[in-house]
Structure formats: structure tokens, C-alpha cells
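Sample intake sheet
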Amino acid sequence: MNLKSDLTLSGLTLLPGGEFAETTLQVADGKIVDLAPGLDAHADFFAEGYLIPGFIDLQINGAFGYDFTTDGGGVIAISESLPQFGVTAFLPTIITSPFENYPIRLREIGTASREAGGARPLGVHLEGPYLNPARVGAHSPEWLRPINLPEIRGWAFPSIVRLVTLAPELPGALEAIHYLQQRGIVVSAGHSEATFAEAMAAFEAGVGWGTHLFNAMSSLHHRAPGLAGALLTSPIPCGLIADGIHVHPTMVKLAYQVKGAQGITLVTDAMAALGMSPGAYRLAGHEVEVSASRTQLADGTLAGSLLSMDAAVRNMLAFSGCTLAEAVNMASHLPASLLGLNHKGLIAAGCDADLVILDNTLHVTRTFVAGRCVFETSPLSAQRREGQR
């Protein structure tokens, strides 16, 4: 793989305005330093399909046999393998656990993140333990906790915790939301039975995202719209698992038509079985039955997914009728914006050179993190490699 930090890439490029144009990029020291119109036949890399910003997964529980909730050290192996799906950055997600395990996992992930050599870990997404027992999903109800602000102050360090999912209708939630938001931590509403009014109050308090729209929340009803209705009709962006299993393709299309291209961030909610063969796996201590397309507990409850980010982009196109630029934006720029990372998720001068080349079938052929090629489907010839040293 290319270890050179200064290089040029040329191809049909997704520009910040949302249009694709033939463009040549100059990369130096891990950043995009210049964009020029037109193609360069002498570029180090030529995109025969599309050159796009790298994907950012805000909710991934594990992959390749590793589960972040029980093994934070898995960040290293997962970081090296996610670029095959076009992922250049991600939030390792810890689901509801025994409370004494949280500081251990946060330390493990923090240490492993410094050694990660592929996709960049951006901090942790804590999904729980402040969830509604009626919407626990695959989380363990015995490990749920009442919201306790002094307790939250003990772990709410934005250097490692970047996003927190909680049920906004729980006692003490509004105060906790305000505190976390003031600390610079994104608060998401999820695993919730919130009424429409409770959801709107939480948005006012500082909730900035919705966790996996439609999943683990009360169903959308014409007289009781609940959290789903609040998310659909507000400017608050929300995550969406576009695998056709968690959310029916028609509901994906509905979400797109209502929220628009700026209101949806694609997530995978992937678990340890992503990239592995069918069989038995574990998610936070639960045994999960994994088929070729579905991950579930013994009682049929969905437990994470097998979705990859590049597949989510292809599915979004197929299900919703959105444009390629819009689907890519949902997987790159919008997640970066949610985290306040203005230097990621766009192909523009000054941005990180986190880039992906898709072929004409929208499958990943090369992935770059900070200008370094960390995945390629067909290695460069020895002669060309020698010319890049």
C-alpha cells in the first residue's frame, strides 16, 4: 500500500456543492491542499468511477469478531479492516453494561485508538445505560440505570466520549442533556417511549441527534407521533439503519422524503459478526444468532446488524431514490458536521485527505486516511510502487 504522504488523485470528484466534476487533488501532509479542474493523466491515483469523501460511522458496536462493549482493544483490528467498506473514521459504540465496566472500556478504547492505523476512532458513542426499559431492544434491562447527574460528571469527558444515547423522558433527563451538551458531547434521543411533547422538550434542552430512527422507539401513530414523529418533523438529524431489515425500504423512502438529504446520517449498528461467517456471536454478553443477513437474539429481537457503510449508501440510493451525492453526504459530511469536525467529510482545500474511490458499481476499490492508502482491491504494480517512493 502507498506510504507516501504527498500525492495526486484525479477523477470524477464529489465537490462541496454536491456536484460531481472531473477534478485533480493535491495531497500533502495528510491534507487536501489544492483542487484543480480537469483530469491529470500523470496522477498517482486515477478514479475510474467516483472520488468521494470517506465514510464516518457514528454507531458501530463491533466487527470482525470483536465487540467493543466487552473488548475495547478490538479498536485496532477493526480500524485496519473497516477501510474495505470505505470507512475512514468511526465511533466505537458501547451498549448498556455493568456500570463498573465503563471506565475499563473507555481506557481500553482510548489506548487502542492511539495505535489504530486504519480508520480513525473519533471517540466513543455510549448507547445507554440511561434507556427506557420498555424499549431496551438487545440491551440488558438489569444493567439500566436511573439518570444521575453526579454520576455523569464522573465520565463525561469529551476527549473520549463524543456521543451519548439516552431516553429523554426519564427523570432528570433534561438536566443531563443540558449538562452534556454544554460539555460539547452530542446527546441523542433513543431507546425511548417519549411522547411528542417530551421529545420536543428534549430537543429544546439540547438533544442534537436521534438514534436509529424508528428502531427502539414507539411506533409512529397518527394520534401519538412520539419520538419518531418529533424527529421526522424537526431539523434534528437522525441515524438510520438502511439495511432493509431494521427499517422497511418504504419507510426509508418516507424518512428521506420528509427529512430531506440534510436530515439523515447513515449508520450501520454493526456488531461482531460484520465481516465474518454466519454462526453464534456475542453482543455485550448476549448470544446472537447470525444468518447470512440477520443478527438476532434467541427470542427474535434484532441485535445489531451486518450492514457495512458502503452497502448502506447503495441501499439508500435503491430504497429512497436519492442521488449518489446525497447518499454519500449522509455517510460522510453530515456525520462529520454532527461532531463539529469541519475538516472531515468534504473534498475541499484544508480538509483531511480521507478519501474513497468507488467503481462504477459503487463498490470500494481504494481508501485513503490522511492521504495514506490503507485499502486497495488490486495492489499497484511493483514498477509503479517504486515510482511513488
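Comment: The chain has two domains: 7-52+346-387, 55-338. The domain at 7-52+346-387 is CATH 2.30.40.10 (Urease, subunit C; domain 1).
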